[in-house]
Amino acid sequence: MEMMKNDVILFFIIFTSCTSNPFWDDPNRTEMKISGQVIAENNVTDVPVSIWLETLDLFTITDSNGNFSIPIANSQTVEGNLNGPLKLYFYIHNYALDSVTIYFTNGLFSREQIDFFDSGKLINSKILKKIMSGNLLLNFNKNILENNDTLKVIVNLNFHNDASLESYKYIYHGDGSDFHSGLFFRNILNNEIILNQFIGQDSYGNNIKDQLVVIDYNKNETVTWIYQINTDSLNIIQGEYEVLPYILVNQNGLPSGMKDALGGDSLFMRHDNYLDLPFDFSPDTLVFN
Known about the structure:
5-stranded antiparallel β-sheet, 289 residues, Immunoglobulin-like, 5-stranded mixed β-sheet, 8% helix, 2 domains, mainly beta
């Protein structure tokens, strides 16, 4: 009986002296997290930077000061504890995709790092470089429209680096038509989204739709895109709307995992979800009566 009592005491001493146990959190364990600051140069609309860590598939965005923090709750993979380099990606749609590398050893931050301190904090603030900037202007004597009015929309683009864009244009050489198409009208009150695309007709009454085109631009180039809209084709109710164009900035190397973390392929198509894409672009507003 005395031996059994001693065994219980010995088990209790060993159990309570463990630095980690399965029944409560270890108060001495330091939480692992990756942190730092990312600044998007010339950010007009204060859109945050989207951040994604590969392999562990962790996603976050920066706060209003450009700071971020990603807790690492589990650094295990199917092969065991994580070892080697992982890339941390930084993204805004019209900025150059950038990344840094953090190294792991047996599931912990390696002591030898290039971009980070061994605590997981980014050594230097990351600066994202802008590819292009732009704004939309409603070329109308007032921002209040009635039925049967024709709206001319101007999109001004400035290129800070070489760029390849995709956009829609209505091209019908029979009558000389050649202008851009594909505008989003977002109701400011209820967030309802209306997509407008131009569909014309040829001399035989056949519908002619707009076409997706690829346009390349050079650094320091400035261009203006023109859109023509008849308000009868908008099919929108009365209210105030934010107006934005569909512009896809092609970026090679954007990981599929980051696309999924952002919301999937529909964000990059002429789709309602496109407006969820992080994009530093200045819209205009329209009141429709």
